[in-house]
Amino acid sequence: MHLTKFTDLGLRALMILGDTGAAGATDPAQRRTIGELAVQTAAPASHVKKVVARLTGAGILGSVRGRSGGVYLADGARSVDVGTLLRDLEGRHEVVDCDGDTPCPLARRDCSLRHLLADAQENFFSTFDGIALGELIDRNAAGAPTGPVSVGMPTTPAPRTYDTDE
Amino acid sequence: MHLTKFTDLGLRALMILGDTGAAGATDPAQRRTIGELAVQTAAPASHVKKVVARLTGAGILGSVRGRSGGVYLADGARSVDVGTLLRDLEGRHEVVDCDGDTPCPLARRDCSLRHLLADAQENFFSTFDGIALGELIDRNAAGAPTGPVSVGMPTTPAPRTYDTDE
């Protein structure tokens, strides 16, 4: 079972941006460029750009143009419900592709498995209901090691392969 | 969010084999060849073969060699717990690939998101705990239309693409 690469990348970007400090546009140190996020998430910049566009459109990220510009956690982003956020990033896809290009023959009757898989998917998402993004970020900050490990620079800068159709 | 193609195919094969009638090796009408299952699941025979091998190894399917041979639901298959079955087919993969070829920088600390995603995955699987495979099959049979729709022959025989690494 896998989340889509889109969701995966969106969550990583938010956790990294949350790691820069309090949300807001005032401090340039809280901003990251698409290129910086691409390095930090080890994903192609083109994919980061799409995810950032979605999160900016949803008001979760803000952006500042110019030389010291970049994206940052928007005001109120920390109170976003992670369950709602996950459902939005994942979209309304089923966990198996019953109605794809080659529809499953079982889909032509009222398949019991399909209903249960939908229930299971909802149980997955509801695990995150009532958890605010800021809470997740704070838990991570609390669990951060005090040694020289930096979240800002991964040891392996090679881009992770992200399929565009996932 | 998607189940692996391996699990997807395994579930479809089991539902189709359950649709042939009571489990058992005695009646050739209850058996399906790899080729027949490949057509009915619209998947490549090589992938069906792998899934069938796993399910046969687990004692959920039985097989008969020869001209009227094939695979069938083994005795006891109907009492298999679907939650346990799903966990077995899916394996121990995380829903995001934190420790892949390019490990996520957040994985180096005790990432709160990772723990919650594991909880969510368990909530997904536990939806199926206590549900027997036979119960799922019977629910499908009860919901079957009485018209000419046949589960046995999909309208589109073109093979669904299954990635081997999923």
UniProtKB/TrEMBL annotation, chains A, B:
GO terms for molecular function: DNA binding; DNA-binding transcription factor activity. Its cofactor is [2Fe-2S] cluster. This is Rrf2 family transcriptional regulator. GO terms for cellular component: cytosol. Keywords: DNA-binding. Pfam families: Rrf2. SUPFAM superfamilies: Winged helix' DNA-binding domain. InterPro entries: TR_Rrf2-type_CS, Tscrpt_reg_Rrf2, WH-like_DNA-bd_sf, WH_DNA-bd_sf. Transmembrane segments: none annotated. Residues 143-166 are annotated as: Disordered. It comes from the Bacteria.
